[in-house]
Amino acid sequence: MNGFASLENRERRLGRSSLITGTEVQPQSSGASCVITTDSETARVARQASHVQQIELRTYIFLDSLQPQLAAYMGTVSQGFLPIPGDACLWMEVSPGMAVHRVTDIALKASNVRLGQMVVERAFGSLALYHRDQSTVLHSGDVVLDAIGSSIDRRKPCDVSWTEVIRAITPDHAVLINRQNRRGSMIESGMSMFILETEPAGYVLIAANEAEKSSNITVVDVKGVGAFGRLTLAGKEGDVEEAAAAAMRAIDQINN
């Protein structure tokens, strides 16, 4: 006879039920042993579910096909699996920052996506998921949204802090930009430059991807983490103008 059954028989003889860690054990007429779930375990599970539901979705963007320059740039900062041009990519940013670990766990267990990047900041956390198959990436995103009780419509809108096209960059200006941004391609004097700053930061990724799709430009700098996202593109004036228009259309679609 096991310990729980002995305790139950003893309590039956005393004519009362027992309390084990706050959970009442009712005698069974058949004499069969009963399954006990402690109140402490129930509370722990409830707390975990509550924490997941409190995760705030800040950025959620799906890139259907990573363009060659953006994929190469993201590979220079990737801590995990490297992206390949043509891969589908899902970028998410959540708050609080440490919650990105829970979101990452949910996404990776939902499908066979590959984790390319996970950044834990003071207030926010970001991650990038890759896979050749778009539906695989989208499935992981759907599972995450369902788990945290959110939707794409509830992501934070994109606030454009600054956008500008600067024409015919001077040699001094070009040198300083190249010294500061060593992960992307270099800008040459005489080129035009498109710059974009967004909040949240991750939205510059879809702006960069759509800009590269639309025009023959050079990706100089893409910063998708931090308080603000920053994008720098360069090229001939007409190409930069076209790329800037495509980038801003992508931002407008997010907010509509």
Q: What is the percentage of strand-forming residues?
A: 25-35%
Low-confidence stretches: 10-38
Could you give a short account of the major beta sheet?
4 strands, antiparallel
Helix content: 40-55%
Rounded mean pLDDT score: 86
Distance between the termini: 67 Å
What's the number of extended β-strand segments?
A: 10
Number of helices: 8
Keywords for this structure?
four-stranded antiparallel beta sheet, 256 residues, elongated, 40% helix, alpha+beta
Describe this structure in words.
- With 256 residues, the protein is an alpha+beta fold.
- It has eight helices and ten strands.
- The strands form three sheets. It has a four-stranded antiparallel sheet, with helices on both faces.
- Strand 5 (114-120) and strand 6 form a beta hairpin.
- Helix 4 (100-110) crosses helix 5.
- It is elongated and about 50 Å long.
- Mean pLDDT is 86; it is low at 10-38.
